[in-house]
Structure formats: structure tokens, C-alpha cells
Specification:
Structural class: alpha/beta
Radius of gyration: 32 Å
Shape: rod-shaped
CATH topology of the largest domain: D-Maltodextrin-Binding Protein, domain 2
Strand content: 15-25%
CATH superfamily of the largest domain: Periplasmic binding protein-like II
CATH class of the largest domain: Alpha Beta
Number of strands: 12
Oligomer: single chain
CATH architecture of the largest domain: 3-Layer(aba) Sandwich
Order of helices and strands: HHHEEHEHHEEEEHEHEHEHEEHH
Strand order of the largest sheet: 4-3-5-12-6
Length: 296
């Protein structure tokens, strides 16, 4: 059975006659009648009892109507879904680290929602890796790519890593040169799920450095650094933008860290996810500190 024949049948059944069905479809009576006859011939059974008081469905017609109505509902739902995919609306879930989340908001991420009133952004901040393939998020901004056959990753920027401290701390504890640069210096150590970072491992090995706070929450370490409690390792793209901190020295042996934007291949079809992704790209690459770090 052809779908256009079933559409004709439904229109006639709902309208109660050939004329009403033709009017609902925007077709002429002859075309509607011909398609209806072709359907009845294919089914080898009449679908309507034609009478002066209107057209009534036969037992076969009632059975076909029930199934054709379900097909019509599914077709309309598919059309609505296709339209939604191409519209910038709905919820987009963005997974980022706890450190990156406030930075993105401060730098104007929510401007994408102002440009698209039907869009809502859900920011999932945490250091745990999310499973995009399992639907835990639509996009992820991470310092390591989440690999997988169903995923697409691109580098937003690369930034070196350095130690930062408050001016008051640096006046009280001027850093030395060479291998004894951190001797006697209070330091703030990334730990927990952040302890695998190269700068965290390097800092933990520095003889003479005094760990005053270890935490898996990088914003807390930065807050402690602002208050003058110790040196904290940060991406230069972030640390150079902290007005209360000064760059002390680069972390040796740690190559520039990439900031990755990861999404599923399926998400490439949805306009809302693409709009947020492009906003992230434009936002990060427009920042002078990120642009400078990315060229090193």
C-alpha cells in the first residue's frame, strides 16, 4: 500500500465523504476517487458503504483506519522531530570541569541563549568523565579527549602551564632560581582526580616545597592562591586572566595542554547543539589570553 493512498482514505473517512476528503487534501474529487479505488482494488475489499446519508466504513475500513491513523500520527511526529532538529531550541547539556564552568559563564556563554530564546543550557560541572555515547551530556569541554567511535573531538586551544601566586606572597617568599626555586614556598596541590595531572605530579615531587592545601577542587585552590596562601599550577590562559595573581614560573616538562570540545556524531544533526558548540569555539578563541597561549 502506498502512503498517499492511505492519506486519501483517512481524509475521506474523517470527512465522511469524497467531497470533504478532497477539500481537506486540496485535491480534486476525481483524483481522490481514483486513489481510493486503487486502494480498495489492492486490498480486494470495499472500505466504504456509499449511501445517500454519507459514507460509512466497512469492517475492513474500520480495521484499516485504526492502523492508518497510527501511521499518520507517527508520520506527524517524525515531521515535528525533523523540524526540532533543525531549530535552535530545547535543552543542551554541556559537561565541563569545575574550574572551566564559571570561566565560560563569566566570558559570555549564555549569550547563545539570549540569541535563541527557545534554547536552554544545562551546565554539568564536575571532574568525572561523562559518557557522551550513553547520553549523559550532549557536549563536553575537557583537558583530555573522550575517545570513541561515536565521538568527535576538536582542539579549542592549547595553553602552557605555570605556577601563580598573589603579589603579597611573592614579596614575603621571593622564588629562587634553579632546582631550589620552590624551597620553603607554600604550595597548593591538585589532588584526588586531579592528582594525575603532570603539574600536580611535578609539584608533589618538589623537595622543600610546603604543601599547605591539597584539593580536588581547583576553584578552591585558586581562591587560596588569591588569598596569598600558596602557589597554584594553572593553565596560563586562565592564570594570566586572574588579576589577583602573578605568573611565577612555567612548570618544566609539561607540554601545552589542549582544551578539547567533544560531542557525539549523532549530535552533528541537531542545530541547537551545533549552536552551543560554535559559541564555545568563538568565545574561547576570541579571548586574548587564549589566543596568545594557543600560538605558543
Amino acid at each position: 500500500m502506498r502512503w498517499d493512498q492511505l492519506q486519501v482514505f483517512l481524509a475521506v473517512a474523517r470527512g465522511g465523504g469524497l467531497q470533504a476528503g478532497a477539500r481537506a487534501l486540496g485535491l480534486d474529487r476525481t483524483t481522490v476517487g481514483r486513489r481510493l479505488q486503487a486502494l480498495e482494488a489492492e486490498l480486494r475489499a470495499p472500505l466504504f458503504l456509499r449511501g445517500r446519508d454519507g459514507w460509512r466504513l466497512t469492517a475492513t475500513g474500520l480495521a484499516v483506519q485504526e492502523r492508518a491513523a497510527r501511521m499518520d500520527a507517527e508520520a506527524r511526529a517524525a515531521e515535528q522531530e525533523a523540524a526540532r532538529v533543525h531549530q535552535v531550541e530545547g535543552v543542551v547539556r554541556l559537561a565541563v570541569t569545575e574550574a572551566v564552568a564559571p570561566f565560560l559563564v563569566e566570558q559570555g556563554l549564555l549569550e547563545v541563549c539570549a540569541s535563541h530564546p527557545g534554547l536552554r543550557l544545562e551546565l554539568l560541572a564536575g571532574n568525572r568523565r561523562v559518557d557522551l555515547a550513553a547520553g549523559e551530556a550532549d557536549l563536553a569541554v575537557r583537558t583530555d579527549p573522550l575517545t570513541g567511535a561515536a565521538l568527535v573531538a576538536r582542539v579549542l586551544v592549547r595553553s602552557p602551564v605555570a605556577l601563580y601566586g598573589a603579589p603579597a606572597l611573592l614579596r614575603a617568599h621571593p622564588p629562587r632560581r634553579g632546582i631550589r626555586a620552590l624551597e620553603g614556598m607554600p604550595v597548593l596541590l591538585p589532588s584526588g582526580e586531579l592528582g594525575h595531572l603532570p603539574e600536580a605530579r611535578w609539584l608533589a615531587r618538589q623537595a622543600g616545597a610546603r604543601v599547605v592545601l591539597a584539593s580536588n577542587h581547583l576553584p578552591a585552590l585558586v581562591a587560596a592562591a588569591r588569598a596569598g596562601h600558596g602557589l597554584v599550577p594553572l593553565l596560563e590562559a586562565w592564570g594570566d586572566r586572574e588579576p589577583a595573581l602573578q605568573r611565577v614560573l612555567p612548570v618544566p616538562g609539561v607540554p601545552p595542554r589542549a582544551l578539547w570540545l567533544v560531542r557525539t556524531r549523532e549530535s552533528l544533526r541537531r542545530a541547537a547543539i551545533s549552536a552551543v558548540a560554535e559559541k564555545l569555539v568563538a568565545l574561547v578563541r576570541a579571548l586574548p589570553s587564549f589566543a596568545t597561549a594557543g600560538r605558543r
